[in-house]
C-alpha cells in the first residue's frame, strides 16, 4: 500500500513558514497584500476563492477580493487590472480562471504587471522560467515540487511522465521536473497508448480533468502518483486517478481532496511574499 502524501499537512507547514515571515515584516510595518479578482458567480470558483482568502488571512496577508459581475466588459476588467498594477499597496494580483467566454484570458493575463503576477502565468514569467531565469512558477507545479522536496522524493534522473499540457499545470510541471534533472515525457489527449508510457514512469503527474483516467494498468509498482484532477462527479470531488485501485500498487500517492489543492493555495501565499519582497527590495 502506497504512502499517502498528505498535501494538507505539507501546506500547513508552508503556511506556518509564510506566517513567520509576515510576522517578522509586520514588526517593521510592512504588510503584503494579495488581491483576487473574481468575475461572475461560478460556484467552484467561489469556493476556491474563499479558500484562498481564508488562507491569506491565516498567514497574515492582507487580502482584497474584487468581485465583478459575469457580464462585465473586458475593458472594465482591464481598467481594474491597470488600477491594481499602479496601487503600491498591492503585491500580488490573481485573476481567477476561467473567465467568461466574452473575455480573452490571454489579453487579461498579459495586462497584469509581471512583478505582481502571483500565478506565474504572464508570458514574461513563463519565458523567464523556460530559459532558466527563476521567475515565479505557477502555484500547482510549484507546490508539487515543494512536496517532492519535503517528502524526500528525489526526481533527478527519474522518468517523470506528465499527463496534460495546459499552460497552468502540464507544461510548467514538465519544465520544473526537467530543471530538477528528471527525464520528462509530456503526454496529452492525442498520445497513443498512454498506459504503455505511464507504466515506464517512476513519477506520474495526472493533470487532464478526466475522472479516473489513470488506472492500475497505467502504474508501475512503487511509482509516485500525483493527482492534480479536480473533477466534480455527482457532487463528489474526484481526481484523475482511480485512487482505490492505484493506491495498493503505487509507492506514494496524493489524495483528492487533501493533496495538490491545498499545496496550490499554500504556494500562492509563498509567491505573494516573494513578489512583495522583490518589489520592495527586501530579502
Ligand atoms: N488564476 C488562477 N489561479 C489558480 O491557481 C486557479 C485558478 N485561477 N482557477 C481555478 C484553479 C483551481 N485551483 C484550486 C486551488 C485549490 C483547490 C483546493 O484547495 N482543493 C481542495 C478541495 C476544495 C473542495 O472541496 O472543493 C483539495 O483538493 O483538498 C482546488 C483548486 C486554483 N486554480
Automatic annotation (TrEMBL):
The Tetrahydrofolate dehydrogenase/cyclohydrolase catalytic domain sits at: 5-119
| Pfam families, per database record | THF_DHG_CYH (PF00763), THF_DHG_CYH_C (PF02882)
Its keywords, alphabetically, are: Amino-acid biosynthesis, Histidine biosynthesis, Hydrolase, Methionine biosynthesis, Multifunctional enzyme, NADP, One-carbon metabolism, Oxidoreductase, Purine biosynthesis
Q: Which reaction does it catalyse?
A: (6R)-5,10-methenyltetrahydrofolate + H2O = (6R)-10-formyltetrahydrofolate + H(+); (6R)-5,10-methylene-5,6,7,8-tetrahydrofolate + NADP(+) = (6R)-5,10-methenyltetrahydrofolate + NADPH
Occurrences of domain Tetrahydrofolate dehydrogenase/cyclohydrolase NAD(P)-binding (ranges):
138-275
Q: Tell me the InterPro entries matching this sequence.
A: Aminoacid_DH-like_N_sf, NAD(P)-bd_dom_sf, THF_DH/CycHdrlase, THF_DH/CycHdrlase_cat_dom, THF_DH/CycHdrlase_NAD-bd_dom
In short, the EC number is: 1.5.1.5, 3.5.4.9
Its pathway is:
One-carbon metabolism; tetrahydrofolate interconversion
Q: Molecular function terms in GO for this entry?
A: methenyltetrahydrofolate cyclohydrolase activity; methylenetetrahydrofolate dehydrogenase (NADP+) activity
* Residue sites binding NADP(+) per the record: 164-166
Q: Give the coiled coil ranges.
A: none
Give the matching HAMAP family. THF_DHG_CYH
Record's family?
A: Belongs to the tetrahydrofolate dehydrogenase/cyclohydrolase family.
Q: What does this protein do?
A: Catalyzes the oxidation of 5,10-methylenetetrahydrofolate to 5,10-methenyltetrahydrofolate and then the hydrolysis of 5,10-methenyltetrahydrofolate to 10-formyltetrahydrofolate.
Q: How does this chain assemble?
A: Homodimer.
Stored PANTHER family: C-1-TETRAHYDROFOLATE SYNTHASE, CYTOPLASMIC, C-1-TETRAHYDROFOLATE SYNTHASE, CYTOPLASMIC-RELATED
**Protein name as it appears in the record:** Bifunctional protein FolD
Amino acid at each position: 500500500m502506497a504512502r499517502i502524501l498528505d498535501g494538507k499537512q505539507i501546506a500547513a507547514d508552508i503556511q506556518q513558514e509564510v506566517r513567520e515571515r509576515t510576522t517578522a515584516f509586520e514588526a517593521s510595518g510592512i504588510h503584503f497584500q494579495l488581491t483576487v479578482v473574481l468575475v461572475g458567480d461560478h460556484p467552484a470558483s467561489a469556493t476556491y476563492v474563499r479558500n484562498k482568502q481564508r488562507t491569506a488571512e491565516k498567514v497574515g496577508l492582507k487580502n482584497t477580493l474584487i468581485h465583478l459581475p459575469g457580464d462585465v466588459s473586458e475593458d472594465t476588467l482591464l481598467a481594474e487590472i491597470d488600477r491594481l498594477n499602479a496601487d503600491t499597496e498591492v503585491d500580488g494580483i490573481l485573476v481567477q480562471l476561467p473567465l467568461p467566454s466574452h473575455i480573452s484570458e490571454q489579453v487579461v493575463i498579459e495586462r497584469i504587471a509581471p512583478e505582481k503576477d502571483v500565478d506565474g502565468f504572464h508570458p514574461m514569467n513563463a519565458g523567464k522560467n523556460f530559459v532558466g531565469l527563476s521567475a515565479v512558477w505557477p502555484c500547482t507545479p510549484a507546490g508539487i515540487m515543494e512536496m517532492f522536496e519535503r517528502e524526500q522524493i528525489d526526481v533527478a534522473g527519474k522518468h517523470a511522465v506528465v499527463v496534460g499540457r495546459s499552460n497552468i499545470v502540464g507544461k510548467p510541471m514538465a519544465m520544473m521536473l526537467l530543471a530538477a534533472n528528471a527525464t520528462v515525457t509530456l503526454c496529452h489527449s492525442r498520445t497513443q497508448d498512454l498506459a504503455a508510457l505511464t507504466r515506464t514512469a517512476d513519477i506520474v503527474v495526472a493533470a487532464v480533468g478526466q475522472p479516473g483516467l489513470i488506472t492500475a494498468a497505467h502504474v508501475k509498482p512503487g511509482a509516485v502518483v500525483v493527482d492534480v484532477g479536480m473533477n466534480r462527479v455527482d457532487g463528489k470531488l474526484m481526481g484523475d486517478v482511480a485512487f482505490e485501485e492505484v493506491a495498493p500498487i503505487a509507492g506514494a500517492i496524493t489524495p483528492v481532496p487533501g493533496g495538490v489543492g491545498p499545496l496550490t493555495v499554500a504556494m500562492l501565499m509563498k509567491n505573494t511574499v516573494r513578489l512583495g519582497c522583490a518589489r520592495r527590495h527586501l530579502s
